[in-house]
């Protein structure tokens, strides 16, 4: 049975900062951000916008009434949970109007969580061919103002509908996974921002890709020539490029050029949004599919997922004939272009505004599904009929 991604969409909030502006404010060479890490813009959110808000916007436009009746599982991959107990997927299930007899939960393992959800969804549909599963990656990547990680921040969500006979990408059964107990990035309970060993994290990312790529190729008897393109987890756009160069330096020059050209197409959107954590791999996949004129039906796409701490996975899928008709390049371009550019002062003020969950209060935000009220520590969201 063919199972895979039937629909896919991303969303980022309507605000951003320019990385050149940030560089000047932090008194560093702008090339350090635009070339050194490969970022041009960073998505920014208000305090009244959270992972539920982003998940709703990413999911609602791709789901039909028929989908809402067929979905029997909602999975949110995130490391930005809003509750230590209740899953955001439960709130998302209600706001979307999905039929009640469904399973809803969150998965956490740094930036890998959504990939775990995708694989769980695939297995569920294989066992229940009439089912559909909604998998959403939604996160807020924050390291603090003027911190070392500040230029690799970002925010947003990617929603994927998993089904039998998918219209976009048929997932293969060729997964290769790797788990290593390494403290390259972590956030203890109670800490507002993560702890990061940047050099170690970069090294573990590259080494993890080397290991899973080699083992994957040995297991499945493949080489780089079998892949039309590779999509990577993108904490910043130079990271995937480093891994690609480290592994394929010995490949024929034509193979290197081909894979690098596809990689550049996969980072078009990430350069304008920053790090989506769990969603970054799948934002890269959307960017690849929407910005490449070289891909064709039946091409094999490889996907490298990485979550610090550390879990890595490499798997692949086959492009379905007509996949390009399921994409929304014009809408995504409009979404990115319509955002408001903030000054660094406006960004810093927005960054420093936080919600006291223990204080009952109401909020004004024009954005649909934003938090409208906190009452008895519960978040209430603005809905379409309000």
Automatic annotation (TrEMBL):
It holds the Pfam family HMG_CoA_synt_N. Residues 180-249, 256-364 form the Hydroxymethylglutaryl-coenzyme A synthase C-terminal domain. The keyword Transferase applies. Residues 2-165 form the Hydroxymethylglutaryl-coenzyme A synthase N-terminal domain. InterPro entries: HMG_CoA_synt_C_dom, HMG_CoA_synth_N, HMG_CoA_synthase_prok, Thiolase-like. Its EC number is 2.3.3.10. PANTHER family: 3-HYDROXY-3-METHYLGLUTARYL COENZYME A SYNTHASE, HYDROXYMETHYLGLUTARYL-COA SYNTHASE. Belongs to the thiolase-like superfamily. HMG-CoA synthase family. This is Hydroxymethylglutaryl-CoA synthase. It comes from Enterococcus innesii.
């Amino acid at each position: 049975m063919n199972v895979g991604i039937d629909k896919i969409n991303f969303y980022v909030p309507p605000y951003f900062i320019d990385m050149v502006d940030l560089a000047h404010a932090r008194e560093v060479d702008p090339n350090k951000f635009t070339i050194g890490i490969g970022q041009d813009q960073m998505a920014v959110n208000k305090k009244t916008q959270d992972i539920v808000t982003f998940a709703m916007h990413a999911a609602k436009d791709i789901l039909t009434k028929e989908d809402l009746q067929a979905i029997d599982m909602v999975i949110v991959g995130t490391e930005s949970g809003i509750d230590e107990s209740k899953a955001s997927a439960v709130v998302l299930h209600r706001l979307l109007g999905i039929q009640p007899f469904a399973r809803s939960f969150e998965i956490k393992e740094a930036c890998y969580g959504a990939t775990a959800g995708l694989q769980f969804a695939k297995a569920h549909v294989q066992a229940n061919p009439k089912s559909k599963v909604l998998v959403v990656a939604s996160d807020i990547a924050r390291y603090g103002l003027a911190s070392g990680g500040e230029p690799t921040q970002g925010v947003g969500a990617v929603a994927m509908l998993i089904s039998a006979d998918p219209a976009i990408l048929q997932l293969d059964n060729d997964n290769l996974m790797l788990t290593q107990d390494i403290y390259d990035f972590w956030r203890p309970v109670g800490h507002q921002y993560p702890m990061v060993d940047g050099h170690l994290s970069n090294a573990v990312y590259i080494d993890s890709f080397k290991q899973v790529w080699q083992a994957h190729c040995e297991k499945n008897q493949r080489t780089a020539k079998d892949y039309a393109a590779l999509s990577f987890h993108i904490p910043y756009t130079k990271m995937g490029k480093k891994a690609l160069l480290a592994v394929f330096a010995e490949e024929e020059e034509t193979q290197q050029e081909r894979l690098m050209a596809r990689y550049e197409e996969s980072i078009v959107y990430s350069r304008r949004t920053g790090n989506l954590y769990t969603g970054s791999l799948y934002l890269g996949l959307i960017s690849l599919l929407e910005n490449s004129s070289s891909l064709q039906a039946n091409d094999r796409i490889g996907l490298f997922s990485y979550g610090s701490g550390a879990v890595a996975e490499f798997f692949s899928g086959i492009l379905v004939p007509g996949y390009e008709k399921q994409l929304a390049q014009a809408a995504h371009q409009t979404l990115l272009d319509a955002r408001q550019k903030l000054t660094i002062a406006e960004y810093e003020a927005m960054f420093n505004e936080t919600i006291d969950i223990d204080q009952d209060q109401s909020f004004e935000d024009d954005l649909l599904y934003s938090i409208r009220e906190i009452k008895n520590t519960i978040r209430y969201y603005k809905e379409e009929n309000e």
